[in-house]
Amino acid sequence: MTTTKDIAIIGGGIGGLCLAQGLVKAGLKVTVYERDRTPSDRLQGYRVHIDPNGARALHDCLPPELWQAFLDTTGHGGQDFGFLTEQLKTLTVIRNPKAADPADDHHSVSRITLRQVLLSGLDEHVRFGKTYERYERLPDGRTRLFFADGTSATADIVVGADGGNSRVRQQYLPHARRVDTGIVTVAGKYPLTPETRALLAPRLVDGPNSIIPPKGMGFFTAPHDLDDDSPTTRATGMTGGPHVAGVTGGPHRIGVTEQEGVLMDNTSSYLLWAFGAAAGRFPADLASMTGERLKATVTGMIRGWHRDLLTMVDLSPAEAVTLLPIRTSIPIGPWQPGPITLLGDAIHSMTPMAGIGANTALRDARLLCAELTGGGDPVEAIGRYEERMREYGFAAVRGSLRAARQFVGESRAARIGFKTFLRGVERIPPLKAKVFS
Fold it and tell me: According to the model, what pLDDT value does residue 254 have?
């Protein structure tokens, strides 16, 4: 073990809680300071794709019963990724066969349910209602943390896991910036029932897809298919025990939320869709639009596309349609390691277009946990973590930004060229295997 006595984690999101689970599992003293007043204050109602990096992190950091709870609450369905035209003609489908080990596989999980899994068993370690404001280094090498309610706390190690607008980063690395990309997305949830499935082309329900229109716009779809006869039973993967939102006791308490409405429903199957374009393509009053007006705006912008895509938008409940501006961090050079470090969006916030933001945060958690529990000086452990994290984290930032620009690329010639390339690799299986391996 390192000589660290007390670790403070600022922020109770996916990465911070995964780190907390791993450190608690290793027997270290950990406290998570979360600004929400309760576990269900700030739920996010969409699915998240967990790739093998994220799955391995969850496997290694969670105790066995919570790893199983995670597996029991993931969606079923294919992970083969399709590239389609706006008329739903198949360009190519990338096959992703299931891995023998779930820790090396891809998974679809509700963000709400994943947070319930990650909070489970951490009652004694999470302090809710603690809005972090600033820190102060003390003469003895420890760090004092100050909160908006007038309280303070001290710790040997501080981990800023407080998201893209991280206050820890703003004080610790003030030159590390996060900027608007000029891209805006509108996302919605299309409920999947036997009746609504029949209204869509099978490929839309079979797995995730990138729709590639002629220019200037992008459209993404992904099913979160629970394949359930009994939604609550399927969502929990377990029977018995109360299913109460925000309860962090044992895994038998992971299940439905107390919030009403389809946006926060984590018990039913649905298809996530996201439409993106440069901000200038949208009406000027986009930010003030209701869900119904957002739907109408997207419908107008994709008029002439395949009717199934129009159906998907039209039949999505308005309360489950939201506006998501796209921001990204700017990669920076190395800094001198110390007893304060950063994790996830707090240091390498990225666009969602590559689908790796949450997975990179989970990868951070696994790596930092391994370093802090591996023995030796904790600052040296943090230095090793930061060196590796900067490499893969900022590479992910750059890759996600490229993906975002490609998603809404303005050049018709570039779109035609990409479609031609995809059709070509579909006709030549060895080339396809080499390109997408």
Answer: 55
The span from the CA of 322 to the CA of 145, in Å, is 34
Report d(CA 49, CA 220) in Å as an integer. Answer: 13
Residue type, 177: R
DSSP labels for 190-226?
Answer: EE--HHHHTTS-HHHHHS-EEEE-SSSEEEEEEEEB-
Q: Where are the alpha helices (DSSP H) in 2-152?
A: 14-25, 52-61, 64-72, 111-119
Secondary structure (H, E, C), 113-162: HHHHHHHCCCCCCEECCCCEEEEEECCCCCEEEEECCCCEEEECEEEECC
Structure confidence at residue 23 (pLDDT): 97
Please list the rounded mean pLDDT of every run of 10 residues in the chain (437 residues): 76 97 96 83 71 97 97 85 95 90 94 93 96 97 97 97 97 97 95 95 95 90 75 37 38 47 65 95 95 97 97 96 94 97 98 92 98 93 98 97 86 80 83 71
Amino acid occupying residue 146: F
For the record, the structure tokens of 73 come out as 């609450």
Contact 183, 277 (CB under 8 A): yes
Closest CA to 407 of 223, 213, 204: 213
111 exposure class (CB count in 10 Å sphere: 0-12, 13-18, 19+): middle
Instruction: Report CA torsion sign: 118, 124, 129, 134.
Output: negative
Query: For residues 196 and 358, is the Cβ–Cβ distance under 8 A?
Result: no
b/e map 181-201, b = 16+ CB within 10 Å = bebbbbbbbbbbeeebbeebe
Q: How far, CA to CA in Å, does 9 sit from each of 75, 169, 341?
A: 29, 13, 10
DSSP at 97 = P
The β-bridge partners of 399 are none
